[in-house]
Amino acid sequence: MTTTPTILIVPGLRDHVAEHWQTLLEQKLREKLIEARSVQPLEHDKLSRDARVAALDQALAEIDGPVILVAHSAGVMITVHWAQQHKRPIMGALLAAPADLESPFPPGYPTIDALRDNGWLPIPRNPLPFPSIVAASTNDPLGSLERVTGFAHAWGSHVVNIGDVGHLNPAAGFGEWVKAEEFVRELAG
Predict the structure, then answer these.
(1) Is 123:151 a contact under the CB 8 Å cutoff?
(2) Which residues make Cβ contacts (< 8 Å) with residue 18, sequence separation at least 6?
(3) What is the pTM assigned to this prediction?
(4) Which of 40, 73, 111, 184 has CA 20 to 30 A from 46's CA?
(5) Which percentage of the chain shows pLDDT scores above 90?
């Protein structure tokens, strides 16, 4: 008997946004009676990598059975940092539009110095201990295709070029992202 995996959403630094594809995916999966939940937003230390990794670890501790992670933006980096420190088996991970925290961001985002001071740098480049798909945008203002592809190769991830989708968020015109469900099904095997 195969156990259906729990889908755990790992949002980025902006946490939960009502119109975001991750939020909509969680709702859609629940409507289909698929166990889906999100890492809870932080009340304090919102820029702390350690606090974000601990929140992911806590969410995983509350799940029995197989898990597929669905991470976006800095949520990808939370997942990658978590994987360097913890050994819990993960069935697979969808890593969508990873934010290149080592490169300067547009105004309104954390600076490289703030990210370094809060433990985000350097970005780990060790192979992940689970299968993963990196969904890479060709015009993401928070991570060039070249850099994201380099991260994916270092992590041992399968790279999928998803085209000109910006940062794959509401600001880029994305609410629902239908491909996410397809990638999750692929990871569930």
Answers:
(1) yes
(2) none
(3) 0.96
(4) 184
(5) 87
